Amino acid sequence: MARASTKPSSPFTRIVSAFRCLLLLLIVVMAEPLSAEIVDQVPRILILYPYDEKIPATTIAGETLRHRLQQATMGKVDLFSEFLDLSRFPEKVHIDRMARYLSEKYADRRPDVVIALGEEATGFIVKYRHAIAPDAKIVFCGFSSADAVKLSLPSDVVGAFSEYDIAKTLLMARGLQPEARDLVIIGGSSDFDRSWLATARSDLPGPASGLKTTYVEDLTIDEFADRASRVPEGSIILVLTVFTDRSGRNFIPRNALERIAAKASAPVYGPYSTYIGHGAVGGNTVTFESVGTAVAELALDAIAGKPIASVNVPKTFVADARELTRWGLPESGLPAGTVLSFKEKSLWEEYWAAIIGIVAALALQGAIITVLLVERQRRLAAEQEARLRLLELVHLNQSATAGALSASIAHELNQPLGAIRSNVDALEILLRKEQPDLDLIRQILIDIREDDQRASDIIVRLRGLLKKRSEIDWQEFDLNEVVNSAIHILHAEAGQKSIVVSSSDPTRALPVRADKVHLQQVILNLATNAMDAMVDAATTERKLVFFRTALIENSEVELSISDTGRGIPSDQLDHVFHAFYTTKPTGTGLGLSIARAIIETYGGKIWADNRAEGGAVFRFVLPLAQHG
Amino acid sequence: MTQLEPIIHIVDDDNSYRTALARLMEASGYRVVTYGSGEELLANLSGSDPGCILLDLQMPGLSGLELQDRLTEKAPLLPIVFLTGRGDIKASVRAMKAGAEDFLEKPASREALLGAVERALLRSEIRRAEHDRVHTLQARLDALTPREFDVFGLIVRGKLNKQIAYELGTSERTVKAHRHNVMEKLGVHSLAEAVSIAERLGLLDLTAKPSDDAHGAVRRASP
């Protein structure tokens, strides 16, 4: 089997190979005309511009034309542009050279269609068509049928004629000024100007139309302007063209119109779109865009092989919105389909995308701000809630402290009360004597008053301990005061436990800003913890709670409360401030965590340490209230 | 021996209360000495005069209860009336067990204070009288020779002369002579009286067998 398959060629194999070769040959043969046909399918169009690329009229028409061609063929067109520059180089030498150049340039790529813009380009291509584009269809645009006659064009050369209809311009004027009684027609002194005047005389209706018509001609430019300034009110001024005035000065008609319109006492109209923007209210005209579009349609028909014939470029009414405003003419008076230029678009028309964008952005921002405000509100509410909870907790802890201290507080209060009672009893006995010792009685009364004051002071001190707060009562006070007050409250409790409470002598006032009751709470908490820590210590050992205040850089104050108990295991120094940390069988484990919350609320810090000589020390730091 | 006015010893760390109490007591006709602390009392107390102690239970330093312990040694004849700012049941029970005369809560009324003081002074009187009697009896007991003391110890436990002679390894006649001397020295005429003395001096509370310890303890207790 293996040998059989390696045989050079079996009859069947040979047939297959031959078939393959044939197929390949067929493809190669067919491919050649196919590719040629594809090339032929893309038509070449040569556009001839009479001048250079800076002339607006031809440039506008040319651009519109190119765009239309590209769009209609979906890009399947080869467009060539040539600027003949005939205004700057009108010499025959240049024209011949140009013809030669183009003939050679397009020798291998002969155009299928040549589009000539304007009379001069049309004349040029008609003359040299055999050298440049012998088989091309020639279409033109940019001049009237009357001009075409002068060029004596061959019958196969067709185009889009620009015909002007001065009657339609007047129609527009009358639509805007139905009350007008006078018509003033202005024209210059050149041949072209005079031909326009002649056209007007023949095309415009006579006095039968109800308009008193005056032709103003053969004047200098200033005289034209002067006349325009003195026309009867409500007149219609129609400016045809002024290429040359009576004095022989040449003008670009647009500029001449501009000078006349500037002084005119009535609205000025004219048959050219170029007049728009230079003082004319409007007119009926052929726009360069419509010229471009019209000739493009002819060219498209030509490359499609359809028969083509000359057409008239559709005319358009054009108007200047600023002039309408200037003369107070209603926009509604314009003929339907008028192209209104310089209309100040409303803010919405001009910037609708931006406005929508801005409004959307504002709405989005508003929504975000609303969400943030709501969030903020909720956070504030939550913070308020948390603060209330803390205050409640603080109060609970306060109450617990008050409860724990109540026995010793009762004792504390019973001292002055007991003294008062005994003093009164003694007084009673003394007064019954025949010769009472008045000095003693006086002294007793003084003592009674003092004890009464003492009892009252104790109650005042305790009131804070029991007072419930719904918000922080910020006040500035001397920390020493609170320390002393706390020591007084603890005095009895310490006495019962045989603990000596002492404090460093205050060297200066220590103003802090906080809620006094809260700080007293912290101090009592730390001190009762300190006393509880010494419960196991033997009586003979000196039990001591020592309060010490110190300044830190004149901006903070540190208060330390130390004891002589067993201290805190060093691995738990950090844990003592955690909630529910407690070593006491009946403790809640909240005291120190509340103390920390309070101190931190007032911008301070609290921590615990062990003293080298034994016992623990709790310290907190608070910022000093700054004066001025 | 002149009968002295009783002295009220007031111990309270609260100057104002102490002074007021002292005034009341003085106005009521007592001699008063005040002390600011338990330590001060222990340092200055002279135990010879009759009287009582008004003691604040809660004081820094030596507490009321600790002071009470020391006073049972130093001034056993002075009854203690505790004053406290709070109804501390535990402390009061302990104090009463330890022999406190009374327990008053501050602020105590004059009636309560004076009543308690009067009762305490009465107790003081009784204690002194008792103490004096015991003292006299002790002095008589001290007059006994050791041999006579041994015989006395056995008599009050109802031993017959024969049994005593046997226990002491002597003759019945010698015991009789000792017995006579004991009755003579103690100034008693009957066995019942002798037993009474023994009981009052606490000799019968001790072990049934009289020992040197018991003897010594009683002897040491006498001044």
Shape of chain B: elongated
Strand proportion of chain B:
5-15%
- Output the radius of gyration of chain B: 22 Å
Main β-sheet of chain A: number of strands, strand sense, barrel status?
6 strands, parallel
Largest sheet composition of chain B:
5 strands, parallel
Quantity of strands of chain A, as a count: 20
Query: In DSSP terms, counting alpha (H) and pi (I) runs of 4 or more, how many helices of chain A?
Result: 17
Termini separation of chain A comes to 114 Å
Task: Identify the strand order in the major beta sheet of chain B.
Answer: 2-1-3-4-5
CATH-scheme architecture of the largest domain in chain B: 3-Layer(aba) Sandwich
Strand order of the largest sheet of chain A: 2-1-3-4-5-11
**Total E-strand runs of chain B:** 5
Query: Outline of chain A, from the CA principal axes?
Result: elongated
Question: Alpha-carbon distance between the termini of chain B?
Answer: 17 Å
Low-confidence regions of chain B:
207-223
Mean pLDDT of chain B: 81
The arrangement of helices and strands of chain B along the chain is EHEHEHEHEHHHHHH
Describe this structure in words.
The complex is a heterodimer of chains A (628) and B (223). With 628 residues, chain A is of the alpha/beta class. Chain A is built from 17 helices and 20 strands. Chain A has helices spanning 2-5, 11-41, 56-72, 92-105, 118-132, 145-151, 166-176, 191-203, 221-229, 253-263, 288-303, 321-327, 347-431, 438-466, 479-496, 516-533, 591-601; strands spanning 44-49, 78-83, 113-117, 137-143, 158-161, 182-186, 212-216, 236-239, 268-269, 282-285, 311-312, 316-320, 339-341, 475-478, 500-503, 511-514, 544-552, 556-562, 605-610, 616-623. In chain A, the strands form 5 sheets. In chain A, strands 2-1-3-4-5-11 form a 6-stranded parallel sheet. A 5-stranded mixed sheet of chain A has the order 15-17-18-20-19. Chain A has a 4-stranded parallel sheet with strand order 7-6-8-9, sandwiched between helices. The longest helix of chain A is centred in the middle third of the chain and has 85 residues, at 347-431. Chain A is elongated. The termini of chain A are far apart. Mean pLDDT of chain A is 83; it is low at 1-9 and 31-39. By secondary structure, chain B is an alpha/beta fold. Chain B folds into 2 domains: 7-130, Response regulator (Rossmann fold, 3-Layer(aba) Sandwich); 143-217, Arc Repressor Mutant, subunit A (Orthogonal Bundle), CATH 1.10.10. In chain B, 57% of the residues lie in helices and 11% in strands. Chain B contains 10 helices and 5 strands. A 5-stranded parallel sheet of chain B has the order 2-1-3-4-5, with helices on both faces. In chain B, β4 (80-84), α4 and β5 form a beta-alpha-beta unit. In chain B, α6 (146-155) packs across α8. Chain B is elongated, with a radius of gyration of 22 Å. The interface between A and B is medium-sized, with 35 and 31 residues.
